[in-house]
Amino acid sequence: METSTRIAAISIIVEQAESTEELNRIIHEYSDYIVGRMGIPYRQKKISIISLVVDAPQNVISAFSGKIGRLEGITAKIAYAKVSQSCE
Fold this sequence. Notes:
- With 88 residues, this protein is α+β, with helices and mostly antiparallel strands.
- It is 25% helix and 51% strand.
- It has a 4-stranded antiparallel sheet with strand order 2-3-1-4, covered by helices on one side.
């Protein structure tokens, strides 16, 4: 059975450090789909920026981003690549 996946970048802004434990739990839950991760603490502004590159089915990316976006003090946005992948 063939499943189509999308490549996407999820940008996350963390404004409340208290939510990072739950954020890391969610990221770990979806770790099989993560291609790369970069985190930047912006100490002067008291925020953190996290970028995730994922390769997953559309519904998985939406669920992943949605769970992150529901956390208090955290914002998540998705940018999709124009190409999609087929997995066998």
